[in-house]
Write a structure and sequence with these properties.
The structure is a homoheptamer of 105-residue chains. The first copy, chain A, is mostly beta strands and 105 residues long. Helix content of chain A is 7%, strand content 33%. Chain A has a single domain, classed as 10 Kd Chaperonin, Protein Cpn10, Chain O (Roll). A six-stranded antiparallel β-sheet of chain A has the order 5-6-2-3-4-7, with no helix packed on it.
Chain lengths: 105, 105, 105, 105, 105, 105, 105
């Protein structure tokens, strides 16, 4: 395999990574997998690292809100990442957003 | 993570919060999860805090009626919120509505 | 919460209430929940109180025929109501209908 | 409730009633409910009493062939009827049909 | 019920009857119902007696190939028939077909 | 039944036959049915004998690659054949194909 | 069967092969099949050998990221390959990609 092939997301895929704050709060590597369907309705935040060409509403650097059930996991160069589809994202936190909701991450 | 990123709902998502009245009546934090499918057909009200750009029929400040089965949960700054999709909302209570149904919340 | 917010049905939703006659005949509050799938194929009548803006074929005051399986339940100001979607209604009884079927409710 | 509200079928619904002949042959009131999925593939005939405004291929007075699995049941003025959707009807027997199949009911 | 109402198939329905040859080979009335899902993948032939107005590719008198799982059964005037949908037919054997496949029934 | 009716595939159906090589290698008549869902993900090759009029990408004489789960079985004149749909074919091996993949059957 | 028929992927299919690096790291032939649904959310990389004519976003020689659940397996000339559909690919690693994500395989 050629060394160092740049990676690009396909279609509507969004690559995200757990943020430091989330990680420290839970003090364990990786997302906690809920043990029941009911509990898995709790959404989590992660930071966007790359998006496919069909993705419209989020950008690299944004924080996005999603259900752990909708994620795929991948290890790249020894680090853990997650893959989502844009349609499964519920909200986005970003500096460019208007502050009119009064809600901040 | 940057401090205080404004949060925006995506697409057809609606962020709601249990109203004080609902909370006091039940005297417990969080929605009661029905134990059977049959019972879960009972709808509940909550207050709209933010809506995605595709949402047409409800606004911030409205009360909306929904099935607890259709909600996702998220904690923001220590408070509990719920996320819904507009298509899963059954009714809306708002001052701007005509009073012709004779039904009030 | 503001007092007395008028309630409006959304989209294709239809708010109905059990009619007095149905109630007296069964002599118990609330619809009887069939214990098996087979039995639940028996349809029931209720009176329309409000309809969403997409509803085309029924009006407030009509009686509509539906399967108890398709209903949601909601309590408003201490009274029990049911919520349906127009596509789940099988028939309508109303004064404005032609009497050509020879069937009356 | 107002006395004697005329009843109209909605959309693609078809109201049918078991014919006398079917009833006498089986000598019991109501359709026999097959005990297994396999057996329930046997179709039955009934007479059309009313059709919704979307129904195209059958008329009041026709006999229609359907699977008992696809029916809903309703009691009107003490008599038992069945409700079907046009798409679930397999065949129609009517005087207006050409006799070119050589099959008669 | 009126005597002798001609029967017409609706929409995409196809009425078929087991051919004599099939019947003799199996020496029993009615199609053998496979006991497992796997076995039920074996297709069978029957003769077309009537087709609905949406049917395009087969005609009365053709032999058609289908899965027993896709059939409904009906008794007309004491004889057993089967009802299929055109989309569930896999192949047709007819004199009008070109013989270029080299396969004959 | 008329003798020797030519058989034609309908719509998107593809009639295939196990090739001699496949048969000899396995030394048993008929495709081995995998015992678990996981194993059934292994694809097999067969030779195309006839195609329906909607089939675009394969021709009589081609070898096609498919999952045994997607096949139906039929016996014609004492020989065993399989029926597939074009959309369930994964690859085709034919002399007319460019050799640019470097893969040969 | 004719010797050496060139193989072509159909429609949206993508033929891939486990890369040497992946193989060495795991030191066993074939992809490890996860024992639970949860675990199977971990994505893996493989090298593209051939693509169908509908495939738009990946080319022969690319590395693609996919879920082992979405693969079919096939043996060609004694070697093991996998078949995927383009829509099931999450990301692509290739020299032609911009390096703006800062992620490399």
């Amino acid at each position: 395999m050629t060394d160092r092939l740049p990676i690009k997301m396909l279609h509507d895929r969004v690559l995200v990574r757990e943020t430091r704050e989330e990680g420290e709060r839970r003090s364990s590597g990786g997302i906690l997998i809920p043990s029941t369907a009911q509990v898995s309705k709790r959404l989590v935040w992660a930071e966007v690292l790359a998006v496919g060409s069909h993705v419209r509403a989020v950008e690299t650097g944004d924080r996005v809100l999603f259900s752990p059930d909708d994620r795929f996991e991948v290890e790249i160069a020894g680090d853990d990442y997650m893959l989502l589809r844009e349609r499964d994202l519920h909200a986005v936190a970003a500096e460019r957003n208007d502050a009119n909701t009064g809600l901040y991450l």
